[in-house]
Amino acid sequence: MKLQIVKIGFPVLRKKTEKIDTAVLPDKKFKQLIKEMIKTMHKMDGVGLAANQVGLDMQLITLECKANSRYPEAHDFPLEVWINPRILKYSAEKEEDWEGCLSIPGYRGVVPRSKWVTFEALTPEGERVEKTVSGFHARVIQHEVDHINGFFYMDRMKDLKRWFHLDEFNHLLNSHISDK
Ligand code: NI
After folding, report:
1. Contact between 119 and 86 (Cβ < 8 Å)
2. Which residues crowd ion ligand 1, with CB under 5 Å?
3. Could you tell me the sign of the dihedral formed by the alpha carbons of 177, 102, 33, 52, in that order?
4. 2, 101, 116, 180: which sits with the fewest CB atoms below 10 Å from its CB?
5. To the nearest whole number, what is the mean pLDDT of the chain?
């Protein structure tokens, strides 16, 4: 099974994806899919991946952040795999930060997101969990849960003037670094 990232314009990225029937969780094929999603996320240097980004109409997301070349200053969080995740509560207080997306390569935008969210999901073993996360972790959860509901980060942007090509984003970053 080789997974391919699909890009903005691919229809399944713009729909509310199908819930996963827990009966499939023990299947070898499903477990293999989770492994391949994690492998693809790592290979692409992503901090999160939704199943519809590899063309699959299902509610499955993976996320993990170790400081890497795309997110050098981000706060780390461990590998998570969530089935049918749903955000139950968004903090009213928001913060802005830059986001990118593997399905929209070469761009970055400033996106306001809730500082913390409470979400529910199933683990790959089918156990229901409810968790509250904050900061960059909450940002990635919001980005990935948006994906499985058919939204991109630009849909959440308040000012498209702060949507940058990666080259210009890097110029901005470098000029900030040389200012210090
Ligand atoms: Ni994305």
Report:
1. yes
2. 101
3. positive
4. 180
5. 94
Q: Percent of the chain, pLDDT > 90?
A: 86
Q: Report the pLDDT averaged over residues 143-158.
A: 98
Burial of 56 (0-12, 13-18, 19+ CB in 10 A): middle
Distance 82 CA to ligand 1 centre (A): 15
Give residue 25 CA to ligand 1 midpoint distance, Å: 24
- For residue 180, report the distance from its CA to the centre of ligand 1, in Å: 31
pLDDT at residue 70 tops 90: no
When comparing pLDDT for 160 and 74, which is higher?
A: 160
54 neighbors 47 (Cβ within 8 angstroms): no
Mean of the pLDDT values across residues 161-170? Answer: 96
- The count of C-alpha atoms lying within 13 angstroms of the C-alpha of 67, restricted to the half-sphere facing its C-beta, is 4
- Residue 94 near residue 112 (C-beta atoms within 8 A): yes
Question: How far, in Å, is the centroid of ligand 1 from the Cα of 78?
Answer: 18
| In the chain, beta strands by DSSP E | 48-50, 60-65, 77-90, 94-99, 107-114, 116-122, 128-134, 163-165
Q: Which entry of 80, 95, 144, 168 is annotated as an active-site residue?
A: 144
State which amino acid sits at residue 149: N
Q: If you measure from the C-alpha of residue 128 to the centroid of ligand 1, how many angstroms do you get, rounded to a whole number? A: 24
Confidence of residue 46 (pLDDT cuts 50, 70, 90): very high
